[in-house]
Design goal:
- The chain is α/β, with parallel strands linked by helices and about 375 residues long.
- The chain has a single domain, classed as Aldolase class I (TIM Barrel).
- It contains 17 helices and eight strands.
- The protein has an eight-stranded mixed β-sheet, with helices on both faces.
- Strand 7, helix 15 and strand 8 form a beta-alpha-beta unit.
- Bound molecules: iron/sulfur cluster (SF4).
- Iron/sulfur cluster binds next to loops.
Length: about 375
């Protein structure tokens, strides 16, 4: 088990006092409707998508197929899974049915996903960096080899109200190089200094977080994307119902997104930049806008979503407004929730080399935050009370 130096679970008597909004948020019919799938899984009224994947019969041992054959099989099983998920959404497929061992084939959809993920690791393209490195032999642009390192896991009380307490797992490594990263120690400086975890241990962590009251399993980092293979394999060993939450920069490749879209119940994307120039300058992420917007359009078809946007000082016109405008024009406004975050503070390289990114040396002003809120309001976005 992963070493942790404080008690990772928070009893209801504590979190309800610290975050009373995590209880009252569910009195809001609009939030309840937008997060309907997540809410039902969270309350064991519906089976999580990864459990549904376990009753989709792969028919044959996926290890015997080549990669093209695996993707063909994946496409077919994904459409079968979709039909079952839609049945669950309508209330026609329940938790008992998917947990019943009689309904479990020898090889299921998750086995296919795990097999593909492990093959991709030999020439990694989980994200749009598309390093192509063999992670069984060396590290990629995310600083990770084929192993998964967990730096901490606990009930997080600082997330959006519907998510608290969130069973958060912090993975080392990231495919971005944000100059202001607040988790730079685990994402960029020493990503492999965390505890090495196997898929079985990762399942055990999730089991414990849920058993002690987590509303979800929050995969974050760094970024969870480089760890897709271990996360998917952990779900093979997990038999408790718990919503899977993807807390990510969403710079996944299409292959990476294809692998996880059938097992994620709620997406928590971090939509940072309104253009590629800022994304390249501040996070070394080329083609950012095209990649993230493509992925958001796919993800919203496969689960509930709360989009985060961190207001950066001096980036209202180039980033905040284009991001909010794109959301309003391209995603269903009656479904998506937006969290406009005001907590930016100078960190990491911005502190070390302040002259390189002069606009980031301060916190966003109250006027900038107010303007961001007002802009979102005019666009008709629902941006509160989720934080
Ligand atoms: S996850 Fe992304 S950054 Fe890491 S090795 Fe794979 S393609 Fe490269």
């Amino acid at each position: 088990m992963v070493f942790i130096d404080f008690y990772p679970y928070v009893p209801p008597s504590v979190w309800m006092r610290v975050r009373p909004d995590a209880v009252t948020v569910w009195d809001d019919e609009d939030v309840r409707r937008r997060l309907d799938w997540y809410y039902r899984v969270m309350n064991d009224k519906a089976p999580a998508k990864f459990l549904i994947a376990k009753i989709v019969d792969a028919g044959e041992n996926p290890a015997k197929l080549d990669l093209n054959g695996l993707w063909d099989l994946h496409r077919r099983l994904s459409s079968e899974h979709r039909k079952l998920w839609e049945k669950a959404v309508r209330g026609e497929l329940g938790l008992e049915e998917v947990l019943d061992r009689k309904n479990r084939p020898e090889y299921n959809f998750l086995h296919v996903k795990v097999e593909i993920a492990k093959r991709i690791l030999r020439s990694c393209r989980f994200c749009e960096r598309r390093c192509g490195v063999d992670r069984y032999k060396r590290v990629g642009g995310c600083f990770l080899d084929c192993k998964t390192y967990v730096h901490s896991w606990f009930h997080h009380l600082g997330e959006e109200a519907p998510l608290v307490p969130s069973g958060t797992i912090f993975y080392g490594g990231c495919n971005f190089r944000c100059v202001y990263c607040q988790n730079y120690d685990i994402s960029q400086v020493a990503p492999r200094s965390g505890s090495l975890v196997s898929a079985r241990q990762l399942a055990q962590i999730q089991r414990e977080l849920r058993a002690h009251g987590a509303r979800n399993i929050n995969h974050v980092g760094g970024d969870p994307t480089p760890n897709i293979h271990t996360i998917l394999e952990s779900l093979l060993y997990l038999e408790v119902n718990v919503p899977q939450l993807w807390n990510s920069n969403m710079y996944l490749s299409l292959e990476g997104l294809e692998l996880i879209k059938d097992v994620i119940d709620i997406w928590l994307p971090d939509f940072k930049y309104g253009n590629d120039r800022c994304a390249t300058r501040l996070s070394a992420a080329p083609r950012y806008f095209e990649v993230v917007t493509r992925n958001l359009k796919i993800a919203i078809e496969h689960g509930d979503m709360i989009i985060r946007h961190l207001v950066l000082p001096g980036h209202l016109e180039c980033c905040t407004k284009p991001v909010l405008k794109w959301i309003a024009e391209n995603l269903p406004r009656d479904k998506v929730l937006v969290n406009i975050m005001d907590q930016y503070r100078p960190e990491h390289l911005v502190v070390k080399y302040p002259r390189m990114w002069p606009e980031l040396r301060r916190r966003p002003s109250a006027a900038e935050i107010a303007e961001a809120f007002e802009y979102a309001r005019k666009l008709g976005l629902r941006y509160e009370p989720v934080s």
